[in-house]
Amino acid sequence: MTEKTAKLTYGDMELELPVHTPTVGPDVIDITKLYSQGKVFTYDPGFTSTAACESTITYIDGGKGELLHRGYPIDQLAAKSHYLEVCYLLLYGELPSADQLEDFESRVTNHTMIHEQMMFLFRGFRRDAHPMAIMNGVVGAMSAFYHDSTDISDPWQREVASIRMIAKMPTIAAMAYKFTIGQPFVYPRNDLDYASNFLRMCFSVPCEDYQVDPILSRAMDRIFTLHADHEQNASTSTVRLASSSGANPFACIAAGIACLWGPAHGGANQACLEMLKEIGTPDRIPEFIARAKDKSDPFRLMGFGHRVYKNFDPRATVMKQSADEVLDLLGVENNPTLQVAKELEAAALADPYFAEKKLFPNVDFYSGIILEAMGFPTSMFTPIFAVSRTVGWISQWKEMIADPAMKIGRPRQLYTGESQRDYVDIENR
Ligand code: SDX
């Protein structure tokens, strides 16, 4: 098949640029030689039109509201699979056989404990620290404890680091939570599945037995599954860029955690639930919608809008079903926050402003309602997102490190500062 090309003419320059054809999605004009041949840059702050890499892991069709992991639609994975099987799929590219899944789950289960000396790191934080601050510090500190899996040039060390990150993130997140509420840490158990282990490490206390509610562990597993990976979002791009310098995987995942914390990204689930509580009752919804539309007001409807989805976020659709199920089973189907959420969603979707700007509920709109109903404080919402997204960060990291074309990321700029000028001595200023 003849290679497709794009012609760029600028002044007396005419360049023929190669065009790459994806499996699905828009064609990609390759500008890697643009500066060397044309001595010009492109300008795309926020990367709204720029493919930063080639990937085979996740694909989003923002117009149709579709999300595929290695080709499998998220709604099918949420209904039929479970988080560790999705982790295997993201990491290795195919759904596992029964033996492969058993081996993978065993490897993860047997890496859930953290180095005992890391306990002392938690004691250095104030009790009122945000759990994300603690996670950021502790995950970065893993570079100081797991030296036998920091050499990224060694495929075996990359594999060990991957399993360790996926296995230890729930333990670290649960410990961050326990530390902030002044309760003792709870060790993971090897006879529990991933989601049940996390719930038990968060909610059990030494004074009594703790039985994990299978409905809640299923809902927790579904939340983990829905947040696992999402193409080149801000935190994944942060992990890729940090990793491109050759930094060790623990430090790079800590960079991803830092980026995810922002309210425009993974911090939106906490901000969304706090917004729903501030609204309080359905009669105050018009006031907040008016504020979201007011350009002079920085307020935005948290949990609405997305850089890529210009249709429903398919994860929000699944999450909404889960919210109904969990609240119904917990006997809190009349949860006032859920009522406000449903009426806010209806009011926003009926408002021309949101329809024109294609602002729909995203993954963060309903997740907080479920997490709150399960007993988590809002400060634990983003740590839970980070636990889930670790497999996405790691999968994308492994893909990039193994790519022979990988080079250090080093964007250029549109410089509009001062041209060269001479230093002025202070007595002459
Ligand atoms: C996640 O990238 C990913 O994949 C992220 C994620 C993942 O899984 O990794 O999906 C997870 O981060 C989901 C998004 C969570 N964030 C929020 O819910 C915060 C609220 N949403 C907005 O901050 C915003 O919608 C973003 C950040 C999500 C997207 O911003 P964009 O694509 O940069 O869009 P924009 O800021 O350029 O807004 C376009 C227009 C603007 O109006 P105009 O200047 O054109 O007049 O839409 C308006 C914005 O003012 N707008 C909103 C709005 N979001 C955008 N107006 C009111 N409320 C909002 N929520």
What does this structure look like?
By secondary structure, this protein is mainly alpha-helical. It contains 18 helices and six strands. It has helices at 34-38, 74-80, 83-92, 98-109, 119-123, 131-141, 155-180, 194-203, 214-226, 234-243, 249-260, 268-279, 285-293, 314-329, 336-349, 352-356, 363-373, 381-401; strands spanning 4-10, 13-20, 28-29, 58-61, 66-69, 72-73. The strands form two sheets. It has a three-stranded antiparallel β-sheet with strand order 1-2-3. Strands 4-5-6 form a three-stranded antiparallel β-sheet. A hairpin with a 7-residue loop joins β2 and β3 (28-29). α3 (83-92) runs parallel beside α18 (381-401), α7 (155-180) runs antiparallel to α18 (381-401) and α11 crosses α18 (381-401). It is globular and about 80 Å long. It starts with a strand and ends in a 28-residue tail after the last helix. The mean pLDDT is 95.
Key features of this structure:
mainly alpha; globular; 429 residues; single chain
Low-confidence stretches: none
**What percent strand?**
5-15%
Order of helices and strands: EEEHEEEHHHHHHHHHHHHHHHHH
How many separate helices?
18
Task: Describe the sheet with the most strands.
Answer: 3 strands, antiparallel
Order of strands across the widest beta sheet? Answer: 1-2-3
How large, in whole angstroms, is the Cα Rg? 23 Å
- Ends: how far apart? 66 Å
Mean pLDDT: 95
Say how many strands there are: 6
**Secondary-structure content class:** mainly alpha
Question: Helical residue percent?
Answer: 40-55%
Ligand list: s-citryldethia Coenzyme A
Morphology call: globular
